[in-house]
Structures are given as structure tokens and as C-alpha cells.
Amino acid sequence: MQFQVPQYIDVEDHIVGPLTIRQFLYIATGFLIIFTSFFFLLTWLWVPFSIVVAAVSLSLALVKYNGRPLLSAAIAAFSFFMRPKSYIWQKPATGTGTQAPPEKRGLIARLGLELLAGTKPVAGRERAGNAFFRRSLPATESVEVVRDITGNQAEVKRVDYR
Predict the structure, then answer these.
(1) Where along the chain do its domains lie?
(2) Which of 4, 32, 93, 125 has the fewest C-beta atoms lying within 10 Å of its C-beta?
(3) Pairing mode, if any, of strands 140-147 and 153-160?
(4) In this model, does residue 21 exceed pLDDT 70?
(5) Vertex 26, ends 60 and 38: CA angle to 5°?
(6) How far is it, in rounded angstroms, from Cα 48 to Cα 63?
(7) Share of the chain above pLDDT 70, in %
(8) CA angle 31, 32, 34 (to 5 degrees)
(9) Chain centroid, CA 18 distance in Å
(10) What distance in Å separates the CA atoms of residue 146 and residue 143, rounded to the nearest whole number?
(11) 3-state helix, strand, coil in the chain (%, to 5)
């Protein structure tokens, strides 16, 4: 037994000519506001008012911003600007208690802690002293032959800045 699967379910039905019911209501509301304001406003005040109302109603009905109707984009922008902002730079700790002391951590954890927060130079990698005031040594260059994953050999230049 075959069933019909509906397609284009995210597209609204065009009820009034090429307009959807929502677009038609935006335009009709704008027209009604312009029509009733004609009887309450003076002519020199009615003309700019009607131009603004027509522009707003037509843009609400026809303009889309990033694939969304203009009204939903305007509501999102308004709520973004009016909502209080909180900037979170670091996640709060969720664990309870404190961490184990560095003596009880593993070797890799202790080395990582020394690299991040230590002031002593790591043996064989760094020299003691302030790197800002020390003159930098010239870079040493060497050419090596390496083999990649596919087995091809290539010459690469290695620059050591230590």
C-alpha cells in the first residue's frame, strides 16, 4: 500500500493571489491604518505618516532577512539589545572538593603544571634567565629526508629556533 508523502511543508500556502494570509494581513492592516488616519490627520501630516506606514507594512509582508520574516528578525534583535548580557570567560568548577596535590598526580600532569605555571627551566629545553632581556640565538637550519604515510621520500628544511 502506498501513501502520499506531503512535500514542501515549510512553504506557506498562497491564499490571496501571490500573497500568503500573513502577508495579506500585514498589507491590509497598513492600508486600514492609512485609511483611518486620513480622516484624523491634516494633509501635510498625513502624507509622510502614510509613507512610513506603507513602508513598514510592505517590508513586514515582503522582506526576508536570512530566510526568516522581518518581524521575527526584528523581535530577535530587540530582545538581544534589551536583555541583560552576561559574559562568561571561564566555566565554573563543577567538581566538589579540591584537586590532589602535585606530588600525588601523575608524571605527565606534573610536567604540564610545571610548563604552564613553573618558573624553573625544563631540563634540556630552556635556559635559565629572562627571555626578554636575553639576546636571541640565531636559528639553525638543517635539511632532512623524511618518508610520508604513502612511503614517498621528500627533503624538508628544519628550522630550530631554540
Answers:
(1) 14-82
(2) 4
(3) antiparallel
(4) yes
(5) 110
(6) 21
(7) 70
(8) 65
(9) 35
(10) 10
(11) 40, 15, 45
Dist. CA 89–CA 124, nearest whole Å: 35
Question: How many whole angstroms separate alpha carbon 11 and alpha carbon 63?
Answer: 15
Task: Please name the residue that has the C-alpha cell 528578525.
Answer: 73
142, amino acid identity: S
Residue type, 36: T
CA 102 to chain centre: 38
Q: Rounded distance, CA 23 to CA 138, Å?
A: 70
SS3 101: coil
- Output phi, psi for 159, to 5 deg: -115, 120
Average pLDDT over residues 80-107: 66
User: In whole angstroms, what is the distance from residue 142 CA to residue 156 CA?
Assistant: 8
The band of 34, judged by pLDDT with boundaries at 50, 70 and 90, is very high
